[in-house]
């Protein structure tokens, strides 16, 4: 019999964290599951760690491939998965033991196409709230939709969710971006779902790496990384404008207060030449926003968008605080 749930776990050089990840997955109170580990060309001992786990727990399978990136690794895992429901977990993160029971149980009760739950950040000091999710997961909502609960515009990550596999396949959902790959796919899933469940329970612990290579979200100040983020902003905007224009105001408000300002904030670290692609993509996004939505932004955000669009980058830089990395460096001197 196929398992009730398949969990796709791409791994690439996460040897320090993989044991904790697999411990959390094999320890789930929902036991009817398979764990599809996709070794995306790891050059550390992650593959060996995963193979040792297969000898302890037959629910774990390994698929190996040359390094082709997270999007391709996830797609490979989906093709290998057999479960009625589908979930994703990154190899450096942790899932609370009752998370999948709650998520799958909700879908079993409601018949919704997908379900999301709350997230916490994790490091050696413990767990802490993830900023921006307060409204999104403030209470349980059964058989809702992003058009009714527009705070779900901020629910753009794949790993705090479970999907009905038949829905995933029917909508032909796949990952394609080389980085920040979740958002366009997840927003499309939210829009195309007939109904979505929202749980206030914490279902995922997103690690802040304190050793080894930092994760992509911990390298936000790097120009190439920022450019990848801006491509995500634009691609996700394309999805929303094509499929759900009524969500444009909520998305614009979020981007203009957060990701677009991160691009401006990077001017404290890099010159305009280094940030050429970043700023070009950010300006192209702002240029496409209807003027009435820019006018409706809070005064500070509105002013920043006008300065960015007009090319007055020095004044824009003066209006934003430096990135946290700059502040921390100054405080440590």
TrEMBL record:
Entry annotated with the keyword Secreted: no
UniProt xrefs under InterPro entries: Glyco_trans_2-like (IPR001173), Nucleotide-diphossugar_trans (IPR029044)
SUPFAM superfamilies documented for this protein: Nucleotide-diphospho-sugar transferases (SSF53448)
Coiled coil: none
Keyword Transferase appears in the UniProt entry: yes
Assigned keywords, A-Z: Transferase
GO MF annotations, alphabetized: hexosyltransferase activity
Residue ranges constituting the Glycosyltransferase 2-like domain according to the UniProt record: 6-166
UniProt xrefs under Pfam families: Glycos_transf_2
Protein name, entry field: CDP-glycerol glycerophosphotransferase
Species of provenance: Actinoplanes derwentensis
């Amino acid at each position: 019999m196929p398992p009730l749930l398949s969990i796709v776990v791409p791994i690439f050089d996460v040897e320090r964290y993989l044991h904790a990840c697999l411990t959390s997955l094999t320890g789930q109170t929902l036991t009817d599951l398979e764990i599809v580990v996709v070794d995306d060309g790891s050059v550390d001992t992650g593959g060996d760690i995963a193979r040792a786990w297969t000898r302890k727990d037959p629910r774990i399978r390994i698929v190996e491939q040359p390094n082709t990136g997270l999007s391709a690794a996830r797609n490979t895992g989906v093709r290998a998965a057999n479960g009625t429901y589908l979930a994703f977990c990154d190899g450096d993160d942790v899932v609370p033991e009752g998370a999948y029971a709650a998520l799958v149980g909700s879908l079993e009760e409601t018949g919704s196409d997908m379900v999301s739950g709350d997230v916490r950040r994790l490091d050696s000091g413990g767990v802490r709230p993830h900023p921006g999710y307060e409204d999104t997961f403030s209470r349980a909502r059964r058989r809702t939709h992003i058009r009714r609960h527009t705070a779900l515009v901020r629910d753009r990550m794949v790993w705090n969710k479970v999907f009905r596999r038949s829905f995933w396949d029917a909508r032909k959902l796949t990952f394609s971006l080389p980085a920040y790959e979740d958002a366009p796919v997840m927003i499309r899933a939210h829009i195309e779902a007939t109904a979505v469940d929202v749980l206030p329970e914490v279902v995922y612990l997103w690690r802040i790496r304190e050793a080894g290579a930092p994760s992509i979200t911990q390298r936000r100040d790097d120009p190439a990384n920022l450019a990848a983020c801006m491509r995500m902003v634009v691609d996700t905007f394309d999805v929303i404008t094509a499929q759900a224009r009524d969500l444009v105001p909520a998305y614009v408000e979020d981007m203009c207060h957060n990701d677009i300002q991160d691009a401006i904030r990077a001017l404290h670290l890099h010159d305009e030449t280094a940030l050429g692609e970043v700023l070009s993509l950010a300006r192209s996004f702002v240029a496409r926003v209807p003027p009435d939505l820019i006018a409706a932004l809070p005064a500070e955000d509105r002013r920043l968008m006008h300065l960015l669009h007009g090319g007055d980058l020095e004044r824009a830089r003066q209006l934003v605080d430096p990135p946290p990395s700059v502040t921390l460096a100054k405080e440590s001197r």
